[in-house]
TrEMBL record:
<dbReference type="InterPro" id="IPR023214">
    <property type="entry name" value="HAD_sf"/>
</dbReference>
<dbReference type="GO" id="GO:0016787">
    <property type="term" value="F:hydrolase activity"/>
</dbReference>
<keyword id="KW-0378">Hydrolase</keyword>
<dbReference type="InterPro" id="IPR052188">
    <property type="entry name" value="Ni-pincer_cofactor_biosynth"/>
</dbReference>
<protein>
    <submittedName>
        <fullName>HAD hydrolase-like protein</fullName>
    </submittedName>
</protein>
<dbReference type="InterPro" id="IPR023198">
    <property type="entry name" value="PGP-like_dom2"/>
</dbReference>
<dbReference type="InterPro" id="IPR014729">
    <property type="entry name" value="Rossmann-like_a/b/a_fold"/>
</dbReference>
<dbReference type="Pfam" id="PF13242">
    <property type="entry name" value="Hydrolase_like"/>
</dbReference>
<dbReference type="InterPro" id="IPR036412">
    <property type="entry name" value="HAD-like_sf"/>
</dbReference>
Amino acid sequence: MTLIDTVPGFSATLAALGDELGVAFPAEDLTRRLGPPLDHLLADHLAPEAVAGAGDRFRELYRDHAIAPTPVLAGAHEAIAAVRRQRGRVLLVTGKFPRNAGLHVDHLGLDVDHVEGWVWGVGKADVLRAEGASVYVGDHVHDVEGALAAGATSVSVLTGGSTRAELEAAGTHVVLDDLLAFPDWLEEHLLTTRLAALEADLAGRESVLVAFSGGADSALVLAAAVRALGPDRVAAATAYSDSLPASERGPAADFAASLGIPVLTPATREMEREGYRANSGQRCYFCKAELLDVLGPLAEEHGLRQVATGTNADDVVAGFRPGIRAAAERGAITPLADAGLTKAQVREASRRWGLPTWAKPAAACLSSRIAYGLEISPARLARVERAEAEVRRVLARHGLESADLRVRDRDDHASVELDADLVAGDLAGRSGAGVVEEVCAAVRAAGFAEAGLDRRGFRSGSLNDDLAPDRADNPLAAATAADIG
């Protein structure tokens, strides 16, 4: 990635070298040609036998003359941050002397994972391939050569000595005016390529049964499968059980119908699994195992070759997700995760495709509201569902709403989680105290002895905090640590 403006430092070092050698190097001309190895640039101005020594001396002088005056390019830090947001690595592959390149990185505080120096043109391809680079950003036609030879996407910026016409003639895939344009380009590039990978994956399947919860992730898988395979080779399966809020069933059926595909509604009996009812840290494993044990034979019965889930790329790296392991053990495919699509990209793709689920809040199963160690039962789940419905009604009476809402069952005590902005805004201070009391009263009326508002606001998976093995007040520490390991 091209990150610094090398002209000031190069010019200063060249001037110092020229003073020592008694040579008036044409700095302006040479800086226009920056990119090739130094020896190539010096060869036209020195005797052949003097070039190697002059290059060595230039590199010695570089530390004192080039590091301080060399600025970072506009947008460089933002470009690196954009790569980080996508969980990517940043490589600096340069023709510069490696130690001097590292000095620039340290001096400018560039968040770079790996620096590889003294490589040029097509020679950069070996490094790019070895490091698994998919995009290479450069400013010279020889950077384009390296990217293309490595099979990487070549992104060129007009901050070096090569013109747009030269870069395009070399075969670069895209030309940007500067690095400031890179974050938006990267976001669009990844979304486009990942959606293409999603559709290509699904197109290679003979037929698919999608485990469809009604949420944004599985909705996108369903829509993509219809695009790739056609409605005749796709079906949705929405499992009905005490864990699925009744309010989710109608919208899920309507969405599937809008795609022109059948929706199957098998009953799942996770409640009959002792491991599920026990509600240890492995509860989601038993839940997903039950779901896939039902959907596998159902898919076979309907002549559908694959069962797909809505697991996305964020889920895979989110840490403790035993349900993903259970699905993988049963051969379920994960098209979103395999294509690298994150939750944010799922929502953006859904918005572009006109899917009504694009902004739908996450709606985890009702069992996710029950504190670990408390036995799951239909009565507990019904109490939580009833309490959440009542909280929404209270908020609506005051002209308020919370996109994310959870009533966490901690046995006799319920903890209410609402959008953090709502908690810090309309419900903060004396003005919101009355609404908070109404919310808590509604939760108590639903069957809880005590209720309180969590002032930290909604936090996805907040009950997982109870699984931390170093929590001194966690009675499940020993058991759950063993389960997780």
